[in-house]
From TrEMBL:
Cofactor note: Binds 1 Mg(2+) ion per subunit.
Lineage: Bacteria, Bacillati, Bacillota, Bacilli, Bacillales
Oligomer and partners: Monomer.
Cofactor: Mg(2+)
Entry EC number(s): 2.7.1.71
Protein name per its UniProtKB record: Shikimate kinase
GO molecular function annotations of the record: ATP binding; magnesium ion binding; shikimate kinase activity
Biological process (GO), any one: chorismate biosynthetic process
């Protein structure tokens, strides 16, 4: 294992399955799992959408970076992140240095279908869901390219995706 890369991190756009896959991978590998968004919600006592409404995206991104740093200071984690964590160069560098990074990707049409159930909880999806997803997908896709591995989750079973990631992690360590 590369000396510093003691964590396994899942990144990707919202709706690609990071949380669901992360839970499954953590069970397969018997790794402690943390989700940056869930950690922030627990810290604040309010949802990400409520925090966005009160303080704005810039403050959210600052809090997100601080939480990422805190998580990376732990011994060994499976870490799932919010989709926009890669927007800051600092976060990409931290992840690249300290984690084996897996980019979960999916076709925009599948992301849209997955997000229909939770769009009211996601402040960046206000308005035309399809247009917003396509715009965010195009704007962010290059930010995910630093990942060590890309896994397409389109039309795949969670168990298959988790097995693929677990296999890659075992080869890494």
């Amino acid at each position: 294992m590369q000396h510093n890369k003691r964590h396994l991190a899942l990144i990707g756009m919202m709706g690609t399955g990071k949380t669901t896959v992360g839970r499954a991978v953590s069970e397969l590998l018997d790794m402690t799992w943390r989700d940056t968004d869930q950690e922030l919600v627990a810290k604040w006592g309010c949802s990400v959408a409520e925090f966005f409404a009160r303080y704005g995206e810039e403050r959210f991104r600052e809090e997100e970076t601080a939480m990422l740093r805190a998580c990376l200071e732990e011994q060994r984690l499976l870490l799932t992140t919010g989709g926009g964590i890669v927007l800051r160069e600092q976060n990409r560098q931290l992840l690249s240095q300290w984690a084996y990074v897996v980019h979960l990707d999916a076709e925009p049409h599948e992301i849209i279908e997955r997000l229909r159930r939770t769009e009211e909880e996601r402040p960046l999806l206000r308005g035309d869901l399809s247009a917003r997803v396509h715009a965010i997908y195009q704007a962010r896709r290059d930010f995910y390219r630093f990942a060590d591995l890309r896994v397409d989750t389109t039309g795949r079973a969670i168990s298959d995706i988790a097995e693929e990631i677990a296999r890659a992690w075992r080869e890494h360590v």
